Amino acid sequence: MPRVVPRADTDRIRRRRANVARELRRRKVLRFAEYLQPDYETTWYHRELADRLDAVRRGECLRLLVFMPPQHGKSELISRKWPAHVLGNDPDSRIIATSYNDDLAAFNARHVRRNMESREYAETFSRRSMVDKSVRTRTADRTTFFEVPGHTGYYLSAGIMGSMTGFGFDIGIIDDPIKNAQEADSPAYRERLKAQFHSVFETRGRGLARGGVPDRIVGVFTRWHHDDLGGYLMRLAESTGDRWEVLSLPAILDTDPQPYDPRKYGESLWPERYPPVVLERRKRNMPARTWEGLYQQRPSPEGGGIFRRNWWRHYDPADVAAWRETHDYDEMFQTWDLSFKDTGHSRVCGLIMMVRKADLFVVDCVVDHMGYTDAKDAVRHRSERWPEAYTKLVEDRANGPALINDLGSELGGLTPWPPKGEKLDSKEARWNAATPPCRSGNVYLPPTTVPWVDPFIEELAATPHGVHDDQADAFAQGVMYWRGDGHVLDDLAQW
User: Fold this and answer.
1) Domain-embedded: residue 136
2) How far apart are the first and last CA of the chain?
3) Are residues 211 and 334 in the same domain?
């Protein structure tokens, strides 16, 4: 017969499980969030973010930057549920939270207060007073403020440009301090924001005021601009030695993943909510610069870096087709960047270029993550599509010599670059040497309605600070060949 468990033992097991569950909610903000909101959706990156926030609360992480796409749950966890969790664990904590304006900051504050008044909060932290006495609120100088009854802790929310005088923080939160592209593209606003961070927000930190734990700052950003506050803080850290932990999460993984990112190439961040097909549609319907910044966390300078956005001219594809049919051009050639790594698929880029008088026309582009076999197939395919582009430049390093050897007798025209005996200068020197014909208006691209054109412009505009440089490398290699340079010329004045 089945063993009958006495009611007292059953109650004891139930209480033990309840105590364990309650302790987990106290220790882990994600468990608390799920208990607070049963339909709260979580995936792997929510767990990663929650672990970082738990470390900040314990004082194990002092500076955290989070870069995420819009509407992926960053504010819900960081600005609405986490402050309540912090004050539940330590009601003497002092929190200042900011956003791009007072209204959004107040909206977040109302959610924090509501969470602290909930039954779930009282059950987790055994603080009935938070429900019975509620919290005291007051609005002054367009800030929202409430205290924890019977303790020294409080929560203050304000717009990033608002007043925080008289208050200090153990934990400071900056949530999306830029409202839109207009603010992001304003140099004056960006400089005001940096000044406000240093002269007002940062000075509110209370140092080692409580138990020897330093004040902590969490910044969560949607990237609008390469020189936004998040980008500025990262660059500042590089020069000053400040240590900021960075959690950067692109909407679609199109680079080698960070150690904390378990995705494979092409996978979206939150496939249950935003599958790749949805994100690809958004990508098609917005400027490439906007997509790269807001969704991929790698904004480029407004005008561009080494290669400026306004340098490129555009041709009518009908003209190129006519020149091709009548052979009214001087030369066509291919240029390939085959930067393979030992493992996995690396980015490969191939460009087809046409020379006509003093102008260079980029008439086709292929760029993707490829293994060695796929790269050979790509060279074959472009050679079939553009048989006039007989010369095929392949950088003479890594797997380039192997590809030349494997395809040399099949295709012909595979040319190691640079020519034998010539020195290959640094990447940056080659990129700079490729800019004069672009700057003088002698380089043409197809219309921006051609799918590869906007990404090409954006990748070159991000050079030298972008994640990828394969298209810049292939382009610079083609320009060097066109000019007849086996090496980068020191004198660029001829252009």
Assistant:
1) yes
2) 95
3) no
* pTM of the predicted protein model: 0.71
Sign of CA dihedral 8, 9, 10, 13: positive
Shared domain check, 45 and 123 = yes
Specify the CATH number for the domain of residue 440.
3.30.420.240
Q: Output the pLDDT for position 491.
A: 35
401: alpha, beta or left? (left if phi > 0; alpha if psi -120 to 50): alpha
Peptide bond preceding 446 in cis form (omega within 30 of 0): no
Give the burial string for 158-183 (b: 16+ CB within 10 Å, else e).
bbbbbebeebbbbbbbbbbbbbebeb
Q: Hey, what are 140's tokens?
A: 């002054």
Give the integer Cα–Cα distance in Å for 11 and 333.
80
Q: What is the CB neighbour count within 10 angstroms for residue 345? A: 17
Mean pLDDT by 10 residues, the chain (495 residues): 63 81 93 93 95 95 94 94 95 93 89 92 75 47 82 91 86 92 86 92 85 89 88 83 88 88 93 93 81 85 77 94 94 87 68 95 93 90 94 83 86 81 70 87 93 90 80 92 58 34
The pLDDT value recorded for residue 131 is: 38
- Cis before residue 418, ω within 30 degrees of 0? yes
* DSSP-assigned beta bridge partners for residue 46: none
Q: Give yes or no for a contact between 490 and 429, defined as CB atoms under 8 angstroms apart.
A: no
**pLDDT at res. 18:** 80
